[in-house]
Write a structure and sequence with these properties.
With 324 residues, the protein is an alpha+beta fold. It has helices at residues 3-17, 24-31, 35-47, 71-75, 96-103, 152-169, 222-227, 231-235, 241-261, 264-274, and strands at residues 51-55, 59-64, 87-93, 112-118, 136-142, 174-176, 180-183, 186-198, 201-211, 281-285, 290-298, 304-307, 313-316, 320-323. It has three domains: 2-64, Winged helix-like DNA-binding domain superfamily/Winged helix DNA-binding domain (Arc Repressor Mutant, subunit A); 71-273, BirA Bifunctional Protein, domain 2, CATH 3.30.930; 281-323, SH3 type barrels, CATH 2.30.30. A seven-stranded mixed sheet has the order 3-4-5-9-8-7-6, with helices on both faces. A five-stranded antiparallel sheet has the order 13-12-11-10-14, with no helix packed on it. A two-stranded antiparallel sheet has the order 1-2. α2 (24-31) packs across α3 and α6 (152-169) packs across α9. The N and C termini lie far apart (55 Å). 41% of the residues are buried. Bound molecules: biotin. Biotin binds next to α5, β5, β8 and β9.
């Protein structure tokens, strides 16, 4: 059992016991270690911000868990087979996607990198992604056996997972092509998928998910306030970020599994049913040109299908989409 699992085991036991004290001996039996080692783990947890009371003769009582995305907190109650089984936690990094890309080749599939703060969070097209404390800045390393041509499917799958997880929280979100998650027309989450691939083979994909979770309007600049929202703004209360990360990882695993077990047309249908881009009149800006038209769907490669006024239609693989 690795250190994180031992710590997770102690927290789980104490949490399940509620107000009742659990002895060091009992905790030791649960995680397979001695009372002295339990005491050492408890000390580590206290240093990380867990409030654990100990009284000689009775044992330990957990009073509170810190509002952090520590690996052991995410691990408790994580209901996945692959995603999130290796978790790399940081207080601060430049970008979780950068860290994940460095690890990609050697890390097992499903490894996640998560940080409280990103100092150089990246959005699409080199845009800055503002990443203060309170958000969820997460990258997942996946090794799908799909063609690099279909890599954008990973973004679609991640978008579906985020919308599903938000629904469980009571927030109705929709997908805007290619990679935005919106609530009432404002951006709440962005997804940045990057890959390392040979012409015919994907070595690994990093799916970067940025969620404005417990971000207050005063942490946003004026521009962001107009165009963005957060889960705490929408719900009027702070969310349990660790619970929500577990939920996203669970939903992502469900959708990711479908990539290899179902026809992609089902996933496309699911994406379209959650999207508010279909049926809209849009302007799409690509490096080559700007086109306007009505969106009739997306293709199996994730391209947007635009019906132009002259009766012809065009597929756009990437670009900035503006609703008209
Ligand atoms: C976008 O909408 O432009 C995509 C934003 C993606 C942000 C996430 S936060 C976690 C990961 N690390 C990054 O630097 N970017 C992604």
């Amino acid at each position: 059992m690795i250190l994180e699992d031992k710590k997770a085991g102690i927290i789980r036991s104490l949490r399940d016991a509620g107000e009742k004290a659990v002895s060091g001996e009992e905790l030791g039996k649960t995680i397979g270690t001695s009372r002295t080692m339990v005491w050492k783990y408890v000390k580590m947890l206290q240093d990380e911000g867990y409030v654990i009371e100990s009284s000689p003769g009775t044992g330990y009582v957990l009073r509170s868990i810190p509002d952090k995305l520590y690996a052991e907190i995410i691990r408790i109650g994580l209901d996945t087979d692959v995603i999130g089984h290796e978790i790399h936690y940081f207080d601060e990094v430049d970008s979780t996607n950068n860290v994940a890309k460095e690890m990609g080749h050697n890390a097992p599939e499903g490894t996640i990198v998560i940080s409280e703060i990103q100092t150089s969070g990246r959005g699409r097209k080199g845009h800055q992604w503002v990443s203060p404390y309170g958000g969820i800045w997460l990258s997942i390393i996946l090794k799908p056996t799909i063609s690099p041509r279909h890599a954008s499917r990973m973004t679609l799958v991640a978008g579906i997972a985020v919308v599903n997880a938000m629904k469980k929280l009571g927030v109705t979100a929709s997908l805007k092509w290619p990679n935005d998650v919106l609530v009432k027309g404002k951006k709440i989450c962005g997804i940045l998928t990057e890959m390392d691939a040979e012409p015919e083979h994907i070595d690994f994909v990093v799916v970067g998910i940025g969620i404005n979770a417990n971000i207050n309007p005063d942490a946003m600049n004026e521009e962001l306030r107009k165009t963005s929202t957060s889960l705490s703004i929408e719900l009027g209360k702070r969310i349990d970020r660790a619970d929500f990360v577990q939920s996203i990882l669970y939903e992502l695993e469900q959708e990711y599994t479908k990539l290899s077990t179902q026809s992609f047309s089902f996933i496309l249908e699911e994406w379209m049913s959650k999207s508010d881009t279909i049926g809209r009149r849009v302007r799409v800006i690509t490096p080559q040109k700007t086109i306007e038209g009505n969106v009739t769907g997306i293709t199996a490669d994730g391209a947007l299908v635009l019906e132009k006024g002259d009766g012809t239609s065009e597929e756009i693989i990437a670009g900035q989409c503006i609703y008209l």
